[in-house]
Write a structure and sequence with these properties.
The structure holds 2 protein chains of 2 kinds.
Chain A lengths: L1 H60 L6 H20 L4 H29 L3 H9 L2 H134 L1 H37 L5 E4 H11 L1 H7 L2 E4 L4 E4 L1 H17 L8 E10 L10 E8 L31 H11 L3 E6 L5 E8 L8 H7 L2
Parallel strand pairs in A: 2-4
Antiparallel strand pairs in A: 1-3, 4-5, 5-7, 6-7
Helix pairs in contact in A: 1-2, 1-3, 1-5, 2-3, 3-4, 3-5, 5-6, 6-10, 7-9, 9-10
Chain B lengths: L8 E5 L3 H14 L4 E5 L2 H9 L15 E4 L8 H10 L8 E5 L4 H10 L3 E4 L4 H18 L4
Parallel strand pairs in B: 1-2, 1-3, 3-4, 4-5
The chains are: A alpha+beta, B alpha/beta.
Chain lengths: ~475, ~150
Amino acid sequence: MALSAAITFFTVSAVLAYRSIDVITKNNISINNTLQTINFIKDLNRELAAAESSQRGYLLTADPDYLQPYHQTLVVVDDLLRLLGESTTELPQQKKRFELLHTYVRKKINEMQRIVALTDRDEIRAAIRQVKTDVGIELMRAISQLLAEMESDEFTLLEKNKAVAAENREFILMALLLANGIGLLLSLGVFYTLYRNSNKVAELNSALALANAELEEKVGVRTQALLQYSEELQRSNRELEEFAFVASHDLQEPLRKIRAFGDRLQQKYSAQLGDTGSDYVSRMQSASERMSVLIDDLLSFSRVTTKQRPFVSVNLNEVMHRVMDDLDYSIEETGAQLHIDPLPIIDADAPQIAQVFMNLIANSLKFHPLDVRPIITVTSAINVASPIADDSRTWCCLRFSDQGIGFEAQYAERIFSLFQRLHGRDEYSGTGIGLALCRKIIERHGGTIAAQSEPGEGAVFTIFLPMTHTVIEPLADLLADAP
Amino acid sequence: MNMPKKTLIILMAEDDADDRLLAQEAMHESRVLNELHFVEDGVQLLSYLRGANDFSDRILYPMPGLILLDLNMPKMDGREALAEIKADSRLRRIPVVILTTSKAEEDMVKGYDLGAVSYITKPVTFDALVELMRTLGKYWVEFVELP
């Protein structure tokens, strides 16, 4: 806005100043012309006056020396008339005067030539007579009158031109002053705006630097906190592993002694113990044995996280084959029928998945009515919808179903808890670790496992697993890469 | 089988007094007439084998034909002791059977790598321990030829 106004202003003032300079230039030419004209008028006047007095002197003295200026005038008068005629074109009224002047001058010169010719022939009287006619004087007066008028008009024109020149000069001066003033103001404005903007930029820059520094500090604090958490996590993992070691070795050791010396008691001192004493000892023995199994179970439960292997591509059909081989004896013993779908290949920890298959099938073999052959069906589906919201991975679904004793629907969650059992030990053996282990393993794989059942209707266990896993960098490495 | 019955001298390295007692009783129950001697850690084991310090009397502390070695012991554990035995040209021919509570795969592999002839997990019941003692006695005395 301000810019276009400035451009318009400078253009208009430049055009006006140019026009004024043009006017002044033309005006200058006109003034020169006028001054020249005035000069010619004065020259003509002087020449004629000189010729007149020269011709009178010759008449009085008859000395040809007096005729010197007269001859000179005759030489220049035509040139002067011509120059005057060329230079008096500017004022229209001068034209008529010049024509009149031309006629008078010619007549005057003729008259002077006649007098000089009479004087040359010594006809002095005739010459004096001619002079006394006053024709020459009248002509001279008329010429002077015309020249004065012409000169006066030229002077008037000169004054007028001078006034115009002065006016234009003043205008140019004013325009120049104004342009300079406005230019100065604009420059100041531009400078001030630039200054203010650069100030603002500097202000914003320093604010940005401050914010950056704050952010860096925050990131540093967070990084420190994350490293600390990571270290704590690693320490607690180490402690858990140590606990697992202690549980497996140091806790099993005293139990083994209890059982061994219990055996000794029963063998060496059964007579002294009597039936009741022997019963007590065998109860002690079986309790020790259960505790030993519990410790082993606890160990295998903690091993899901402490002894985990990285996920690799696993063919679940091969895993299932190995499990079937391991369960071969139980399958034959119970006369079970198994129907197993082709299974997918997924990213997994194979031994852990084998553990899940083993526990689920072993459960189906275990929890069935004695007089019925177990029928176990494993179905699979791939590219199923993710059970987790906002998840773009491909999932598979494995379904283990049997026609066993089943359980009440209200226990569908409880059976996955550690050491939770729905039956007495004398009914069905076990510590209640199997399904807890299954859930822990499936959750470690990022999947879900759920059960559905009704008493006497068999049970269905549904597993959802992501088919691929992104390799997650250890936290410490991730933080080490951070700036 | 006309050969006269030999007796085998077994040296057991075991830090646990209960286990030593149980082993002694099991040996007795097995009715195999083998001599069983005890040391309580790896340092003692090497001293016994080299007849050093208190073990210089070879009548009281005869050279064993078989070593039963526990892995987890104070001062010098079974692995270190085994390595040292196998590095000693006078001792390396004595067969070493590892008898331990550890079921860890790495212990087993390490044990065989170091030159143990067997790796046995301590039996849980006394009867099983008696059976082990009987089998060991029979195997190493009746079937195996030792220099």
